Amino acid sequence: MKTSIAAVLVLAATAQAHTFLDHIIADGKAVDAVMHTATYNTGTRNSPIKKLSPNPDLICGVGPVSKAAASASVAAGSTIQTAWGHNVVGDDIIDPSHKGSVNFYLAKATASGAVPTGDAWFKIQQQEFADGKWGTEDLIADKGVFPVTIPAQLPAGNYVLRSEVSALHEADALADAGARGIQFYIFCSQLTVTAPASNTALPMSLSDMANFYTDKSPGILFSIYNNPGTAYPTLGPAVAAFSKSGNSATPVASAASLVPSASAGANTTPTVITIPGTGAIATPTAVALASTTAADQATTAANPETTPAASGETTTAADANESTPTAVSKAAKCHKRSKATTVPAY
Questions:
Q1: φ, ψ of residue 209 in degrees (nearest 5)
Q2: For residue 138, what is the enclosing H or E element?
């Protein structure tokens, strides 16, 4: 009996670790705009992704990913909220030990509704370690309600929002070297952005998220036990700048790993791509909002994890010397916490 009780306690402890995106809040209303992953209704939707690139699951979660029941309507320059939970929205959200970033990306939606692939994604907001706290700590403090601001210069159209939470409690080692490794919780949502016809600026850099995160990418291998949060490099690309002309004359880094770890030797020169101009984007017909009544799954698959003692860690300098990308607005780099944390029901 003692063994059984111990096993239950282990399962309960590990189940508290994970998180998932439940819905989008637009204009104070909950919208069932989340694209369901293959595991969304199986009780394991909150399990982490640990396999690095190449991995298509790093785009929008464990595939195949299905279209959302609705598209959240949002005006360019306005703020929506993402509503997260551990088993159900608004509960304990994610274990406090799982410190890491909360980042957001956009891509133009495909005509078929399929997940955008290739060099399609641009980062619009990031919160890693700022003002003495990690993005996940703000996520917990805000009871799982995390705001994201849509770029004011974004053209009207249908987009996919990629929400990415990372956890670094096991990032002192690589996942392919054992059970440890950085953890990703990734979900996508459908948005319909309204904007003035004068909004024709396009992002100057696009990334292929299925092939971006390798073991040499900054932020993948990092010990939060031996390094201050201020030493953490930017995870993923920098927040995208926009070109009013709709055509970038400056090459941008590809989605391949940009900077190898210090132990991997000299830096390699990244390949480059140039973003072709596409002109103005016409405002699409408004998408009707809908919701589903499917019950949330409260069960979570066990995923044993361990947290090393600080004395047992070895300092990894792989990412300590990485430089921060070109400065972007503070609003994009970290959000201002909102005191309104009530999660509206469907």
A1: -70, -20
A2: helix 135-141
